[in-house]
Write a structure and sequence with these properties.
alpha+beta; 8-stranded mixed beta sheet; 434 residues; 13 helices
Length: 434
């Protein structure tokens, strides 16, 4: 949510900020409603003062034994007028909120301008791409030859964009989750959270998925929502709270299933596990003091990088351009892992983590604040989120980068303890062999 005071004091700057998002905004219509609200608020103050004065006068007249019926009638009229104006303010505030709640966050000045992902800026590359003596396969071919990625059964049970993991690949999913959570908790000092997977409207409104992205979500029969990411419940932990400044930053991590209808991506990435309706993801959320949020974004990216480095998966970091930054973010870095089996064996980088600083945008929507006891000042928090990592895409990356000529897949060394000592995934003799 945007700060109306900022728009009021910087209307031209706000127009420019929204234009970078590809929106043609008329700030005058926003400010006209704001003027009406402030005018009516002034009217309420005047009427309240009149009512208070009349109330004092009644007390005086009663003590003098005089008639107060006219004054009481006047106070009643003033009360009715207050009720009427208060309702008018609520109506105007609702109209203003309807306009502001669908506008995306303003971008940081250093976010590069661009229309789409093709104009994102390369920040760094890490790792050595594997060299094969054979034409590398993609994860679909690898997993099906191993008899452990079962797309046919996934479709039979649930429809398109679902998969059934079997045997050692199912174990790999669990191993990755434990490894990632352990790293974030034991090495980075995160607090592990096991949040609800179903949330109310208010939670999704707070993080920015509602009302704009309703079609991308799954709704339950009782009008609640399956989470599209653990960012939603983790960030909403501080909704309607005033935290003590000394408690910041808060760093949460959770592994959850994520549910997305992928309405906005129909027809794209239909092959394999790249884009599914249900997938697991380890999510990081930071709640921080505004003065530290830029530094915390670097920390967030570093945490995601560490996981990729420990798994020895080649990756690159991209700074997203204005046309590719998400609705609630003001700046985003994507970590893209190298997938040698994609693009007909030529390989390509694909997003495996997206790390964003949302500034106070989500905090305003959630009414999440912090208090400095020394100055007694209360202000909105800053929120950040990032994947650490998307587990399904990490499985893809391991299958494709660690594939062997005989069809087996070597397990990264760091995962072997989590894989019950198993160092290689080999084909099952049947789809039911464990």
């Amino acid at each position: 949510m945007h700060d109306i005071k900022f728009i009021r004091n910087n209307p031209e700057k706000f127009i420019k900020q929204m234009s970078r998002r590809g929106l043609n905004i008329d700030s005058s219509s926003i400010l006209d409603i704001d003027k009406v609200i402030r005018k009516k608020q002034s009217e309420i103050q005047v009427i309240q003062e009149q009512r208070n004065n009349s109330s004092k006068e009644i007390g005086k007249l009663i003590s003098e034994g005089k008639d107060v019926s006219e004054l009481k009638k006047n106070i009643s009229n003033l009360k009715s007028e207050l009720t009427k104006i208060d309702q008018e303010i609520k109506n105007c505030s609702s109209e203003l909120n309807d306009i502001l709640k669908v506008l995306p966050n303003s971008l940081d000045d250093d976010v590069p301008d661009g229309e789409n992902e093709n104009e994102n800026k390369l920040i760094k590359k890490w790792g050595t791409k594997p060299k094969f003596t054979f034409e590398p396969l993609d994860h679909v071919e690898i997993g099906e030859k191993l008899n452990q990625l079962d797309f046919k059964t996934g479709v039979k049970i649930s429809g398109s964009r679902f998969v059934l993991l079997r045997g050692k690949i199912a174990l790999l999913e669990r191993a990755l989750s434990s490894f990632m959570i352990d790293t974030h908790v034991n090495h980075f000092g995160f607090e592990e959270i096991s949040p609800p997977y179903i949330v109310r409207d208010e939670a999704l409104y707070g993080t920015g998925q509602l009302p704009k992205f309703t079609d991308d979500l799954f709704c339950t029969t009782d009008k609640r929502w399956l989470i599209p990411t653990a960012e939603v419940p983790l960030t909403n932990i501080v909704r309607d709270e005033i935290l003590d400044k000394s408690s910041l930053p808060l760093r949460f991590v959770a592994n959850t299933p994520c549910f997305r209808s992928e309405a906005g991506a129909a027809g794209t990435d239909t092959r394999g596990m790249i884009r599914q309706h249900q997938f697991s993801k380890v999510e990081m959320v930071f709640i921080t003091n505004p003065i530290n949020s830029d530094e915390e974004l670097k920390n967030l990216v570093s945490c995601a990088e560490t996981i990729l480095k420990k798994l020895e998966l080649p990756y690159r970091i991209m700074k997203l351009c204005s046309g590719d930054v998400g609705f609630s973010a003001k700046k985003t870095f994507d970590l893209e892992v190298w997938l040698p089996g994609q693009n007909s064996g030529k390989g390509m980088y694909r997003e495996i983590s997206s790390c964003s600083n949302c500034g106070d945008f989500q905090a305003r929507r959630m009414n999440a604040k912090f208090k400095d006891k020394e100055t007694n000042k209360i202000d909105f928090l800053h929120t950040l989120n990032g994947s650490g990592l998307a587990i399904g895409r990490t499985i893809i990356a391991i299958l494709e980068n660690y594939q062997q000529s005989d069809g087996s897949v070597v397990i990264p060394d760091v995962l072997v303890p989590y894989m019950r000592g198993i160092k290689k995934i080999e084909a099952l003799n049947s789809t039911h062999e464990q």
